[in-house]
Amino acid sequence: MKYDKVRWGIIGCGDVTEVKSGPAFQKVQNSELVAVMRRNGELAQDFAKRHNVAKWYDDADALINDPEVDAVYIATPPGSHKEYTIKVAKAGKPVYVEKPMALNFAECEEMIAACETAGVPLYVAYYRRAQPKFVKIKELLEAKEIGDVRFVSSMQYRQVSEDVKDLQNPPWRVQSELAGGGLFFDLASHTLDIFDFLLGPIKDVQGFASNQAGYYRAEDIVTGTYLFESGIHGVGSWCFSAFENVDVNEIVGSKGKISFSTFGNDPIIMRKENEEKRWSFDRPQHVHQPLVEMIVADLTGDGGKCPSTGVTGARTNWVLGKMVENYYL
Length: 329
Description:
The chain is α/β, with parallel strands linked by helices. The chain folds into 2 domains: 6-126 and 287-308, 3-Layer(aba) Sandwich (Rossmann fold); 132-281, 2-Layer Sandwich (Dihydrodipicolinate Reductase, domain 2). It is built from 11 helices and 14 strands. The protein has helices at 15-18, 24-27, 41-50, 60-64, 81-90, 105-118, 132-142, 176-179, 183-199, 289-300, 310-323, and strands at 6-11, 31-37, 55-57, 71-74, 95-97, 122-124, 149-157, 202-210, 221-228, 233-239, 246-253, 256-260, 268-272, 275-279. The strands form 2 sheets. The chain has an 8-stranded mixed sheet, with helices on one face. A 6-stranded parallel sheet has the order 3-2-1-4-5-6, sandwiched between helices. Strand 4 (71-74), helix 5 and strand 5 (95-97) form a beta-alpha-beta unit. The longest helix has 17 residues, at 183-199. It is globular, with a radius of gyration of 20 Å.
């Protein structure tokens, strides 16, 4: 089904929807945010009032079945992604679900099957796939600017944030029953997904996960190696109890290398034997907006296919799961 205008509903209008995603649905051409839902009705009403949204709900089923809602953005923790995706699919409406796509790969497969059965598209909020910074890196790779890619590496470590030190009331991002794992699932998923976007699927993974600092039960350090279907090698290390914050990725080829961050706003750096080039990009005000534009164009028939789908999102969940497999056996 093609839409003249996509009327969106949001399930879970929490922090991520305030700036990162919510306003994008209002700003994109042929798109409108018409309804929001949160279990706390007062908070849903407050969000609707502040963002000029016509309707608010405290019941997800009511929003899903609202005839004026064409498509649904699920912005809850991953623990409820499968449930809501299946409900939206059964209602015959397109789904845009937050990342990581679900608690595990098996849930992703159920979500894909439900949307295929219902004949509705499934998109996943790996929004970096549409941002100019990462599109530029893909262009450089496709132009063979660094020759044939040999291997990739990523290193991300962070200081312990104060909120995760609350043993009685830890944030959902470090509760594996809600998030799938610890901060690795929330943050490393972006890096692993962007490598999938840039270099194709990963076919084999080995990893080790531990908890070293003891602030919560989920893993707080992960190291792993992986092999792309193309034969490119990869290695990564993610630690969330270190002395400082670092975020650096490298793609090394036969003629040069490209360095970039996943979360920072520092430039892309390409180095060759006698050459160095840099490209800087402003971070979008609403980081989801470039991807939302592509989704809306897909749904209205005004553009190409969206690069972040249930199939690609599931691949990232598979890699995440394999990386921490030893910890959750």
